[in-house]
Amino acid sequence: MDYELPTEFDIIIVGTGIVESIVSAAASRIGKTVLHIDSQDYYGGFWASFNLEQIDKLCERNQNANVDISADVQLNEGERLIQIGNNNFDLKNTSQKWSIPEKLELKDVSENVEGDNCDVTETEADNGTGTEEVWTQEKLMRESRKFNIDIAPKIQFARGDFVELLISSNIARYSEYRSVSRVLTWLNGELEVVPCSRSDVFSNPKVSVIEKRMLMKLLGACMDSEENEFKDYKIKTFHTYLNDKRLTDNVIHYVLYAIAMSTVDTPCSEGVENIKRFLNSLGRFGKTPFLYSMYGSGELSQAFCRLSAVFGGVYALNQNLGGFVFDAENKFKGLVCGKQQVIKASHLVMGIEKSPEEFVKSVEVSYISRGIFITNGSVKGSEKEHLTLLFYPLKGGRELCNVIELGTLTGTCPKGIYIVHMFTKQINTPKEDLEECVSKLFQSEKEDSDVKDARPQVLWSFYYSAPDTNTANLRKDVPENAFLCPGPDCDLDIDYSIKKAKEIFNSMYPDVEFLPRAPDPEEIIIGDGSDEQIPKK
Amino acid sequence: MCDLFKRELLFKVLVIGDFGVGKTSIIKRYAEGTFSTKYKITIGADFALKQIDWDSETRINIQLWDIAGHERFGYLTSVYYRYAVAAAIVFDLTRPDTFVAVSKWLNDLRDKVSLPHGKPLPVIILANKGDVAANKVPVQIEEFCKKNQIVSWYITSAKENRNIDSAMNRLILEALENQRNNNLYNSDSLMLAEEANSGTHNSSRLCCSR
């Protein structure tokens, strides 16, 4: 499977993160020749999902693997070769921990021999009797491939820019979603279901009749956004507005932390916008405004890559990258692939982690504290499996921790297992930042008490800091025909990434439609093989 | 119009193998009954469709997914593999290295996709360009198939329309057998569309029995 690549393209894209992949699809779609290349052997970069074995190796992996500096190419006068990759954007403070034994003790093994032969009905019957399943590292590793663990978990708004783009571009056919089935918050020391829709509000036993009226009236006011309503709150917080409305503490909590996804410091206008976004996305798919991508968030970039490939994009992963060639005017000329081949293109688009050091030296990076937990049960048990989104106010409401709990129906973990993702802006270390939330949701590690703890047990955990460049200026030190794509941010959704991808596309190809609807296979008229036609729209 | 048939099935079949071994020719021959020596990549199409009235009760819609020379370095997206029920791996009898690559393609396939109950996908191997090099069959092929649970292998020629129908029929028979034993894919995930009423799909995408 080793082929020489063609020597000239309209655009070379290095890295297969979501922004790079969207630009790739958009460019291929309008007939530009695209080389989409990655030094890694998987799609998605920092947006990928991994199975348990792969994530085990993630800590050891070298981000700049396959970047070669020994290239031997002939450069023209004034041209220079710049090394690909930098050390500014990588996962930091990674720590992985198993909290279960490697194998069962010998006597247990002999009892379980039959189960190991994997008669499906038998194992299921075992579960049905209510005996708790005993997990070992070995047993989980055997199911490694049933895991799709997101490095950057994302939830989409049902009417957000991403979903609209998927539908309008017809890329929706490449992916499937599940709707988040409940939204939770942490209130008065317990997990409570946030009433999302009108019917939720009215059926929620914990919300009194007076509170119901308050809540509906408030949400109505935010939706209408009449000028007078908010004119005194231009420089005040949303929390202040809610307090002034003389609502009960419970209603303030639901609105502030869950529906508005805000903190006590969020400006009023932002809180109102968030509420609108939440309510606008209600009632389209499922009971909540939120969607999660089946088989993990790593699917998102691959859907765009597939479209790009179907429209002629050339894909090459696991490639040795020898450097970028720039000319005397600091214009991008080409990519050195392997030791000698120079591939030319008029534009270069790259993931920020693939950027040469000199283009990103002044980019400011903040970090996201992330934690992933494999558990043996849901944080809030129920008869049917839920896909849960939880907004947990940290530090007395100054920060919000996003928690996503995924069960086997999402195609991201085996039966009987849940994956819990947590993330918040980094202040200290990931472990310290998430500790409050972790200690409330899961069994404590020390089994010193005789009282049975009904909370789920953490079987495996993985903490890390992930770079976030959302606020950084990515054009400052970058040559005119080269573009940097931001990595995953701390937002729940990827609408910001879409905005960035569109900006990059429009800078290269102004006045051309961004991802027009792709035809379905049956709409493509194929001629005699020599003149194939596709509908332009 | 399909009322005559008690059930209508949809099978996604993958056609994989090295660059230039004749995947597109085989697909065109099978789906459209045509052959040309200079196929261009079909821009914008994910797959070719072929409809077979299998028996008086069953109609099968076969989606033949070409890698289309795009993801040609062997790194296919999950989108390509997902929900496939069978695969044909093609090599070129005139280029021995393309047979060596068959095991790479097979490994990638086995690694990335299996049937819902963990069973491996049924796979056939097509030794293509049999019109010019039928005598160049690799001696190891029989053993390779046995060792790797390959359903069967065929010398094919897209040009002379040799063995393609019988090879594909064999593969479909296997897929049908699996379909009978398990109700293959069943999830209540969402396909996003303009409005919610087209939302939930109960395995309507593939393998639906009516």
Overall outline of chain A = globular
Q: Report the portion of residues of chain A in β strands.
A: 15-25%
CATH fold naming of the largest domain in chain A: Guanine Nucleotide Dissociation Inhibitor, domain 2
List how many beta strands of chain B DSSP finds. 6
Name the chain pair with the biggest interface and residue counts per chain.
A-B, 54 and 44 residues
Mean of residue pLDDT values of chain A: 89
Unreliably modeled segments of chain A: 109-130, 527-537
The biggest beta sheet of chain A is recorded as:
8 strands, mixed
End-to-end CA span of chain B: 13 Å
State the helix count of chain A: 16
| Helix proportion range of chain A | 25-40%
Structural class of chain B: alpha/beta
Oligomeric state: heterodimer
In round numbers, the mean pLDDT of chain B is 84
Number of self-contained structural domains of chain A: 2
What's the alpha carbon Rg of chain B, rounded to whole Å? 17 Å
CATH class of the largest domain in chain A: Alpha Beta
Level-2 CATH architecture of the largest domain in chain A? 2-Layer Sandwich
Q: Report the β-strand fraction of chain B as a percent range.
A: 15-25%
Quantity of strands of chain A, as a count: 21
Q: Which structural class fits the helix and strand makeup of chain A?
A: alpha+beta
Account of the protein in words:
The complex is a heterodimer of chains A (537) and B (210). Chain A is α+β, with helices and mostly antiparallel strands. Chain A folds into 2 domains: 8-89 and 296-363 and 471-508, FAD/NAD(P)-binding domain; 156-293 and 366-468, Guanine Nucleotide Dissociation Inhibitor, domain 2. Chain A contains 16 helices and 21 strands. In chain A, the strands form 4 sheets. In chain A, strands 1, 2, 4, 12, 13, 14, 15 and 21 form an 8-stranded mixed β-sheet that branches. In chain A, strands 5-20-16-19-18-17-9-10 form an 8-stranded mixed β-sheet, with helices on both faces. In chain A, a hairpin with a 2-residue loop joins strand 9 (182-187) and strand 10 (190-193). In chain A, helix 1 runs parallel beside helix 13 (299-310), helix 1 (18-29) packs across helix 16 and helix 10 (238-244) crosses helix 12 (268-280). The longest helix of chain A is centred in the middle third of the chain and has 16 residues, at 209-224. Chain A is globular, with a radius of gyration of 25 Å. By secondary structure, chain B is of the alpha/beta class. Helices cover 29% and strands 22% of the residues of chain B. Chain B contains 6 helices and 6 strands; from the N terminus they run E-H-E-E-H-E-H-E-H-H-E-H. Chain B has a 6-stranded mixed β-sheet, sandwiched between helices. In chain B, strand 2 (47-55) and strand 3 form a beta hairpin. Chain B is globular and about 50 Å long. Chain B starts with 6 loop residues before the first strand and ends in a 29-residue tail after the last helix. The model of chain B is unreliable at 196-210 (pLDDT under 50). Chains A and B meet through helix 6, strand 8, helix 13 and strand 12 of A and strand 2 and helix 2 of B. Chain B: InterPro entries: P-loop_NTPase (IPR027417), Rab29/Rab38/Rab32 (IPR030697), Small_GTP-bd (IPR005225), Small_GTPase (IPR001806). Chain B: Keywords: GTP-binding, Lipoprotein, Membrane, Nucleotide-binding, Prenylation. Chain B: Its main location: membrane. Chain B: It is found in: Membrane. Chain B: The small GTPases Rab are key regulators in vesicle trafficking.
